[in-house]
Amino acid sequence: MSHIISLLSGNIPGGIVLALLALLFVNLTLHFLVKSGLIKQRLREKYALFNTVVLLLYSLVWFITRDAPPLERIVVLPTIEQDSSLVMPVPFTFAHLFAENAAQVKSGYMIHPWYWIYQTLQKDHDKAKPWMELARRLNPSFILHSQKRSSGKIYIVLEDMNNGRRWEREYEGEGWAEKAFRDISREFDWFKKMTPVQNIERRATLYYRLADKDYDSVIAETETDTSNILLVLRAEAFVGRGLQKDVDYVKKAYVDEVNADFEQAKSLLIPLIKMRRDVYPASYLLGRMAIRDQDYENAEVYLKKALTDNPYDARIYFALSYLLSSRLEELGLENRKDVLRRAIRLDPGYTDAVYELANEYFMSGSGIENSSGSQSAFNVLHTYLKINHKDPRILSLLASIDLKLSKLEEAEEIYLQLAERFPQDSNAWYNLGILYSAKKEYDKAIENFEKAIRLNDNPDAYLHLGIIYQKTGDFDKALYYFRERVKRKDGEDDRYAREALKGIRKVLAARRDSSRTGVVPAP
User: Fold this and answer.
1) Listed residue (419, 414, 418, 514) closest to 470, CA to CA
2) Distance between terminal CA atoms of the chain?
3) Is the distance from CB of 380 to CB of 350 less than 8 angstroms?
4) Which parts of the chain are TPR repeats (predicted)?
């Protein structure tokens, strides 16, 4: 039924207009038939009543299934110097006041935390111009700027993008960020309540390091802290460091491996939960660890609590996307795509969610260019690239989908651009090797795979070199590269190592056949 509703309404305001036009056409047709004597007058009244009922039902269905109105997004940019460079050492003190109060925002608004933009920008996060450009592409309702003048005063501008209004103030002295935050909160009434934030500059500094994945320094600096907020921040650093460790899930099924960083984080968070002294994002962090440990029952409990703590955090929805659909029903979410769409609605620049949703769409399609799955995947990727057109991971996925759809020229154009931008990235050359292998341009493929190996000993390049030499009948080289890939086996669930083992068996079998018959198998 939901698919029929989606087909009729498109889940967008304005779908009802199509129904009105269709009903108008039907009624005009009936009117013509009555006037021409082809249909009786009394039947016309029944058709009019039928159309009215259909219109009312359609209006009801549209109202129930339409998308929620967009949230009024509030973006707070880092503080800049007179020359437009970022204020150092930490330009996020003012922005972090809003980020820490994101859970207190009133219905209809949302704070877009500065560290979300930091993650979207990746290597461009140290320049002021990309921040402004990306902020505007997010289509926010409000943008807050702050600039340090040569006099030492801080000049703040709030742009109301919907009404074209500007709010301007100047502050000086210590505590300027807190004063400005209070003034804006009173004047614009965005928050249910304002959470007092102590040591905001230090906390902004620590979150800056977290965003930069400098977990060791955060852990070292918070060793003696006892406040709830800093205990949770310390736990977040342990979780971040723990997530960097690879997990061999095949081995984990037989050997109970303990993630020491996760255990440290739990020792900080669980007592807070039990004493009901937890602050956001304690529940989210416990849920995120449970997802990594494949403890989905606890993940469900913690993540649902996290959602009540802060319903506007895209990261919670992304974590929820790893749960079975049956666990999501009470949240009004149908499936993984629905959850990922919700995450992207909150943060259109959320690279991980965009990547996963596009991949989900493509994998659920028929594998042809004009299928709904492929088109939906392209729509998701191109929408993101309007926000951040330089993202190498998303561009690589777009090229990968082009490659799978045999759009080889489009894929080659993207891969060549990535190789030019990131010449020291072995994956850029590896991807070109995959492309030329698909085009059966084996000399070019070999050249690019060898470059990937020289740069970073790319393990999967060995596998594909083995496949190429197997196809071209050079069994000695094929065996060498297959064996080199097996040597680089990464855990029991390394499927490329298993592919290399299969390649070895096939090459040895082909050798036996050729020695027995005296005929080398055709490549």
Assistant:
1) 514
2) 52
3) no
4) 280-313, 426-459
Give the chain's count of helices (H) and strands (E).
Answer: 25, 5
Query: How far is Cα 222 from Cα 350, in angstroms, rounded to an integer?
Result: 28
User: Whats the size of the chain, residue-wise?
Assistant: 523
From the number of C-beta atoms within 10 Å of its C-beta (0-12, 13-18, 19+), residue 366 rates as exposed
pLDDT (tens digit per residue) in 304-333: 999 998 999 999 999 999 999 889 888 888
Q: Which contacts of 317-326 are long-range, i.e. CB under 8 A and separated by 24 or more positions?
A: 317/342, 317/343, 317/346, 317/353, 318/343, 318/350, 318/352, 318/353, 318/356, 319/284, 319/287, 319/288, 319/291, 321/353, 321/356, 322/291, 322/296, 323/296, 323/299, 324/296
Measure the CA–CA gap between 178 and 201, rounded to whole angstroms: 10
Cβ–Cβ < 8 Å for 399, 362: no
The CA distance from 211 to 199, in Å, is: 18
pTM score above 0.85 = no
Q: Which helix (H) or strand (E) holds 158?
A: strand 154-160
Q: Cβ(13)–Cβ(66) under 8 Å?
A: yes
Other Cβ atoms within 10 Å of 53 Cβ, number: 10
Q: For the chain, what percent of residues have pLDDT higher than 90?
A: 63
Mean pLDDT of each 10-residue bin along the chain, 523 residues long = 41 52 66 63 63 69 60 95 88 93 90 96 89 95 94 94 93 89 92 80 94 96 92 96 85 79 96 85 96 94 93 95 91 92 96 96 74 88 95 95 92 95 94 95 97 95 96 94 93 87 92 68 54
CB 487 within 8 A of CB 501: no
**Which CATH code fits 72-211?**
3.40.50
Residue with tokens 């943060």, as numbered in its chain: 347
pLDDT at 438: 94
Give the span between the Cα atoms of 287 and 282, in whole angstroms.
9
Directed axis angle between helix 296-309 and helix 282-292, to 10°?
160
Q: What is the rounded (10 degree) CA torsion for 281, 287, 288, 292?
A: 160
For 512, other C-beta atoms within 10 Å of its C-beta total 10
132 SS3 class: helix
**CA-to-CA separations, 379 to 120, 335, 435, in angstroms, rounded:** 19, 19, 23
E-only strand ranges, 69-113: 72-76, 109-112
